[in-house]
Amino acid sequence: MNKTILCIGAGYVGGPTMAIMADNCPDYKVIVVDKNEARIKAWQSDTLPIYEPGLDEVVKRARGRNLFFSTDIFGGIEEADIIFVSVNTPTKTFGAGAGKAADLQYWEKTARDIIEHSSGDKIVVEKSTLPVRTAAAMQRILQSNTKGLNFEVISNPEFMAEGTAVTDLQHPDRVLIGSMNTPGGQAALQRMLDIYLHWVPREKIKTTNIWSSELSKLVSNAMLAQRISSVNSISALCEKTDANILEVSAAMGLDSRIGSKFLRASIGFGGSCFKKDILNLVYLSEFYGLPEVAAYWEQVVLINDYQERRFVAKICNKMFNTIAGKKIAVFGFAFKADTGDTRESPAIYVCKMLLEERARLAIHDPKALENAMLDLTGETGDITYCADPYEAVKGAHCIAVLTDWKDFLKYDFRKIYELMEKPAFIFDGRNLLDHQAMFDIGFNVYPLGQPALSHLK
Ligand code: NAD
Ligand code: UGA
Q1: Quick check: 1 pLDDT over 90?
Q2: Top-tier CATH class for 4-200
Q3: Buried-most residue among 219, 260, 352, 420 (CB within 10 A)?
């Protein structure tokens, strides 16, 4: 049996998933290819292209043994008979469905590469997040080959989160495998089970029909994001009523039917996927003639935008209705802690709105400063990027906490207070800091969804 696995796309998903697979399946050869030469070079080096706790060790163990990174896409297609496709599927920016539908051009290009460079039958695995029924289109394209080859399409969406990718992949809540109910589809499913059973207990592997698998991925992200928007909407109500969102979330979360996770109020969810996947769900609902369903899910994104705007409006309002010319120390730019990723980070939108109000920004982040610079390229205004938090706060009127980095908790806030203009403000968009301690130092503290602690009368 051919025991070579190929993954096309060496990004945030392709790299870590295949590293874990190779580490757990020493009897397989795993090749990860990408058209991006710089990315592949980085995967081959000591400085991996993405920051993920624990990933360096896994890659070091398997690389060169049974894990290989390469730009030879066509050679990889020829060699492997199981091909995971983990290319990006961003929101379409042009033509029909622009702003909502998934842009499937990278996905289709890989299908065509697979047809052209295959000389044997293959199993093609959808690892990317795709609209429901993509497998039908994929199967049609692949079966149009004139070489008499057979291709089986499997859906195996990925549920890992950034920052915890290694543990999520090593100990997944579930592995989902969707297949066609045909002899070929069932044989392909068995090949997938053979791989995952190397490290995932059978009861954690859920097998479904292929459409349920594709749709479950979109809906899982939509449900997670919906919890955040629900809690964020209530954070606004808390601020009007002196209720405390931490207490409300904790009280709700004690109901075992609701559960306590993913109820942290924030300036909004970010990351490369939540928004694009919900918009894709909205598009699909519209496409299938279900406008009420589309409107329901679209509201999750609209509340997210509202929460970002609300945060900026609060900063302006509490700082005497003007922030023009005032220096704001932005603590955190990554979309969440423990990653350098800033894709769709709420910090991008918050910073742009602050710049529109002509604030001066000093941005500090332990891992994401380079990406922050790229994201704000072309913005007019006074922006500095500070690796040193004490530099960022020098002469600042306020600190806006935009990412929940635990590192911030170790900073010397007495020293920070001394370095700042007075009155000094903290707007904690993540409810991260010890607000009473900050207030005692002298700060005017504005948490999210909690009563403010202000020295101002
Ligand atoms: P990414 O942009 O980090 O990586 C995609 C890679 O695919 C890029 O390096 C790109 O160069 C490469 N690529 C694109 N077209 C190619 C082609 N024709 N041939 C070879 N390489 C090609 O994206 P990602 O974050 O890894 O996400 C990939 C997919 O997984 C998306 O559908 C996403 O929705 C889904 N997903 C992402 C996450 C996450 O945490 N980032 C989690 C679960 C699922
Ligand atoms: C998310 C999902 O958690 C993964 O299961 C999924 O595989 C992945 O998307 C994907 O498909 O890309 P990720 O985006 O890496 O993973 O990170 P999350 O931990 O889900 O956080 C997303 C955003 O929500 C972050 O901005 C985070 O700060 C925010 N968040 C999260 C909150 O504001 N409140 C919470 O309670 C939880």
Answers
A1: no
A2: alpha beta
A3: 420
